[in-house]
Structure to design on (419 residues):
């Protein structure tokens, strides 16, 4: 009697992966479409651009605090329920921006609302299920899921502009809520199921794993482990450098003597190569030594800093810098997720990844401000780019020889033996 072969990872999970790719950009779309609404808000309410942006900035700060909490919730509950709830509430929250008035308090409140409910459909929710469903091709599946974020950066500005021009800014908010949440809701209902065993969710105590008889480490000990501390420091340091490079890319090219149109066109290469960086990193991470991959990504950041620090108006040189920076930035987002999945118990993926992404958000908020200060003090970005390259070297050293928590490192920790 012939026994049917078990389906491959891709065959078994391709629909679930599609649902994750289409759904992961739903909350992220808010940040990419805001710029299209600043003009209409300025005209109707007389707001400055800073006032129109303050709600978004506060929502980022709120996300920094809620990220680990959402991650903990993902570890303890069925992610499908969170995803469905988050998609519906995010769509409604996005549509509620049509009710904005001249009150900045209401505007800030709307941004806080979308930050809170958006976390229920944020990257942690989708990646927790994807990383558990894939074993052999886990890193590539993670990178493909994160490529869904590029849908937001690519489509949100254009969709917003078309809808504003056709229907006005208030109706545009309502339609955008439907455009983003509608397809995501349908695909999630049909294909996104959380098959993680309930007994793998994060425990309050150290309990034996039925398959290995090895105890799961306490979350407190995980956060105190050298692996997590070094990984967190690397995320903060390279996150500050990477976000600064990306935000100041076009202004830096203009400072070299390029006109605004050329600078913007060259800077646009960054987004396209980031997709390539994500996919390649996901493919190579499952096939090459971990230290070689992380060192390679940091080397790309250092190379980008060195290229962009050159005082040259050369277009080929600027293109090369943008290509290298895009590859590094796309790869970094996958590195963080893959290391969280590889180095820590799967029952803690949500809270670990949520904490790391919160630190990345904090770094993204602080880094560009520091670079702006450097530019104001020196009149150029040269020192900032060289400093970013040096930071990449530090981050590479932090990521060397990271060991999975619960293996040799935790076994040697005095706190672990005392519990």
């Amino acid at each position: 009697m012939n026994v049917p072969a078990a389906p491959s990872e891709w065959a078994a999970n391709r629909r679930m992966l599609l649902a994750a790719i289409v759904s992961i950009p739903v909350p992220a779309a808010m940040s990419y479409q805001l710029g299209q609404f600043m003009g209409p808000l300025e005209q109707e309410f007389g707001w400055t651009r800073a006032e129109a942006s303050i709600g978004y900035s506060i929502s980022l700060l709120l996300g920094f605090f809620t990220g680990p909490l959402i991650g903990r919730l993902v570890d303890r509950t069925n992610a499908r329920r969170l995803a469905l709830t988050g998609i519906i509430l995010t769509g409604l929250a996005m549509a509620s921006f049509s009710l904005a008035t001249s009150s900045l308090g209401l505007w800030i409140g709307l941004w806080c609302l979308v930050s809170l409910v958006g976390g229920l459909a944020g990257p942690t929710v989708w990646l927790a299920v994807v990383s558990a469903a894939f074993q052999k091709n886990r890193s590539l599946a993670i990178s493909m899921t994160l490529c869904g974020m590029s849908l937001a950066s690519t489509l949100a500005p254009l969709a917003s502009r078309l809808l504003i021009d056709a229907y006005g800014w208030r109706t545009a908010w309502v339609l955008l809520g439907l455009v983003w949440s509608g397809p995501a809701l349908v695909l999630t209902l049909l294909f996104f199921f959380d098959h993680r065993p309930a007994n793998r969710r994060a425990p309050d105590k150290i309990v034996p794993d039925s398959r290995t008889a090895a105890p799961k480490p306490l979350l407190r000990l995980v956060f105190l482990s050298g692996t997590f501390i070094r990984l967190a420091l690397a995320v903060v340091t390279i996150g500050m450098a990477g976000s600064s490079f990306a935000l100041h890319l076009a202004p830096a090219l203009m400072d070299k003597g390029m006109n605004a149109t050329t600078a913007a066109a060259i800077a646009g290469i960054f987004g396209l190569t980031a997709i390539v960086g994500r996919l390649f990193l996901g493919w190579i991470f499952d096939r090459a030594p971990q230290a070689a991959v992380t060192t390679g990504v940091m080397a790309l950041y250092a190379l980008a800093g060195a290229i962009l620090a050159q005082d040259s108006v050369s277009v080929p040189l600027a293109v090369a810098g943008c290509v290298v920076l895009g590859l590094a930035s796309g790869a970094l987002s996958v590195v963080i997720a893959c290391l969280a999945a590889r180095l820590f118990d799967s029952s803690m993926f949500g809270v670990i990844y949520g904490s790391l992404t919160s630190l990345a958000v904090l770094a993204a908020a602080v880094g560009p401000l520091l670079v702006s200060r450097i530019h104001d003090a020196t009149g150029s970005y040269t020192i900032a780019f060289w400093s970013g390259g040096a930071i990449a070297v530090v981050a590479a050293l932090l990521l060397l020889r990271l060991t999975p928590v619960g293996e040799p490192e935790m076994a040697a920790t005095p706190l672990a033996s005392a519990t």
Remarks:
- The radius of gyration is 22 Å.
- Residues 219-405 form a domain with the Growth Hormone; Chain: A; fold (CATH 1.20.1250.20).
